[in-house]
Amino acid sequence: MGPIRNLTELVESAGGIVLKCDFDTTNIDAVHLxxxxxxxxxxxxxxxxxxxxxxxxxxxxxxxxxxxNNIGADIEEEADAFAAEFLMPENEIVNHLxxxxxxxxxxLKPVWKVSMAxxxxxxxxxxxxxxxxxxxLFILLSKNGYRxxxxxxxxxxxxxxxxxxxxxxRSQLGYNPFELARLLFKNDPQFFEDRDKxxxxxxxxxxxxxxxx
Length: 213
Prior knowledge:
three-stranded mixed beta sheet; alpha+beta; two-stranded antiparallel sheet; 11% strand; Arc Repressor Mutant, subunit A
């Protein structure tokens, strides 16, 4: 009941693996994969803001549950609807959405840990404000520069499961960084175009050299 305190932690506790990656672009927010015999993997763009990361992870979670065969009239709208209900359940939040203003959205943002824009959109979707009020609030968001950079940024959620797995392989199973690199990347041509040379990799912001098998 109530707001989800830490969505990344919740997904990891359910068996998903969340990874923050540098996509080298801001045009892609996330990708999720479900390899055979493995837990679901959620790759999130490391450049996302705190509220955008939570929304994006909830959106990808919606895809993972709803679109195993990519069947649907509009799978992106369906994933957004899933994310909205997952992060802001209607029966729990609706009474907070009446008389919505920018100030009200700013007050609710750290409580529900979603963007001001998402709260305004939910207020409209649940008939708590008129269409005129909804459009006017988004005009105000734009005029204040909040569409790209909202005030009151949320604390960034950090994945922990992969670091725990790597630490276990190093401390309990005796792998060193080079062996882990070979284990993770030995069959991926994007990392080993020239199989005679090591390639510089980064994990958790730290560089190391990985060698092909």
